[in-house]
Amino acid sequence: MKISGQLIKRISVYLIGIYFTAVAIAISKMTPLGISPNSSLPNEISLILDANLGLMTAIVFASFVIIQWILLGKNFRVINFIQVILSIIYGFFVNSAVALVNRVLPPCDTYIMQLVYTLISALLLGAAIKVYLVPRLMALPAEGLAQAVAQRFKIPFPNAKNICDITIVTISVILSFAYFGTLYGIREGTIIHAVLVGRSVKWSDKLFGRQLERFIWGNGKDDETEEEKEIEAIEEGIEKAI
């Protein structure tokens, strides 16, 4: 089977974008201020079990796929089980990124540096999300879950995204208080991510979105598949969420 140059571009850009979302998470992990809402649950579980973040991310994200299946029933497309494999790959990416940033970046010992790292993480995460969504391949399981909630309950994606993020953070808070007796791993950094990431996706679209679209798709695209339309809707929804 011949693989087109365009498909190679799509896969390459997709993997680069996903890897840099992992780098963004790893940067926020270096501070005690909290991690992005999507990753707050695997982060909290990793703190409780003293397990590596990549493994917990893979397990939690795979569970999001199962929840999608339960929510959508017969409307769940079998191809979406590929998200389970993607969860495992993403777990490896997270562990690799954590090792990388801990080696490359200096420790952030002051509150100002912690805020700087958190802001960098949030802005990088939004930019990386923009990059991985442009190829229109497959959303990460957290966004896939929000899409399933939107489809199941017939609500706009931004609302579903907010509901999922709030639910994930709430579960993380409950676990934190139940195990540590206080908030641990969820602080102002989580709020900063919630506020900035969607805006960063929008800013990144203005900054390099058109050039990236042209690099992958040239001067035009063929008719979009159902999956590509869903990814486009997810991208627009992330920009509008919170």
Largest sheet: none
Q: What form results from the Cα inertia axes?
A: globular
> Over the alpha carbons, how many angstroms does the gyration radius reach?
17 Å
Tell me the helix content: over 70%
Q: Note the gap between the termini.
A: 44 Å
By DSSP (H or I, 4+ residues per run), the number of helices equals: 9
- The total of beta strands comes to 0
- List the helices and strands in order: HHHHHHHHH
* Average pLDDT score: 90
- Could you tell me the strand content as a percent range? under 5%
Structural class of the secondary structure composition?
mainly alpha
Low-confidence stretches: none
3D architecture notes:
- The protein has helices at residues 5-29, 37-49, 53-72, 82-104, 111-133, 141-153, 157-180, 188-217, 226-240.
- The protein is mainly α and 242 residues long.
- The chain is globular.
- The model has no long low-confidence stretch (mean pLDDT 90).
Provide key terms for this protein:
single chain; 242 residues; mainly alpha; 0% strand
Short characterization:
This protein has 242 residues and is mostly helical. The protein is built from nine helices and no strands. α2 (37-49) crosses α3 and α2 (37-49) packs parallel to α7 (157-180).
